Task: structure prediction
Amino acid sequence: MTVKIVTDSSADINPELAQQLGITVVPLYLSFGDKVYRDGVDISADEFYQKLETSPVHPTTAAPSPGDFATTYEGLAKETDEIVSIHIGSKVSATYDAALRGKETLAGTRCQIEVVDSQWVTMALGLVTMAAAKAAQAGENLHQVLEEVKSSIPRIRVLGVFDTLKYLLLGGRVSKTKAIVGSVLNVKPLFTMRDGELAMAGITRTRSKGVERLVELVKSALDIQDLAIVHATTPGEANSLKELISSILAKERIYIARLGPALGVHGGPGTLIVALREGKDRPARETTAGERKRRLPLPSLHLPGQHFSCYYQSQGRKLDYPLRLKLAEV
Result:
């Protein structure tokens, strides 16, 4: 039997591509006040960003419930006895924990389920999941697919640019940060993920400079296997960036995806991200003097009071995850 691959909607994998690769996507929940939506099911990306800009209530995201995962696993167990379930980093979401709890429902059955904390979000997670799905379609067994996942996770590099910190601040709702707003809204913050947490990677004075930094990431990468450009509301810009990057990497290895609520609720409109997966045999990278020089210190952007808020939809149990914005290398 073919190994079945599961992920969550924070991976931002295009639905058609997910279907083509045989990936089952469990939706996260999105709440605007009392109104709750299933990500990608009850609300589209266009509707989400329209509401994000116009709603008087800032939205929150929530992990799928353990029951959501149990139902998914039970359905797939009718087709296979091997499942690999790969999810958003456990430091920024309760999704991984919910998947582990959902797996317990099938304890004692013949179906073997492996739940993996990817330590990533958006298409950084998506690229890991897609690698697993391609391995499964190639006929590899559960152990081999799991090894592909584990080897892919440390080979991911990601860099993004926020058009504004407005939505990040709104999400925290911490009065101490109000003084920061005036000093940061005229710059474009660069962000990455480090050790499973969102981290600042520098600032640029203009958006065009931010896009240049994304291209620099691609140029500095070694043996790129595949790459994703993720945009919130700027498809034209994403396509232009793809054309630019195609001089470095073949177009068939470049995917364009839409940023969903998991990170979009904090990044907002205009967020642009590049995620890539390097080859297995790449040598260890060393940060150059030029790269270190570009990483500007951002002491004013350390927001100790900010949190990602997640809760189990079925249980109403809220879990807060600290959003640490520390300067990190990409």
The radius of gyration is 19 Å.
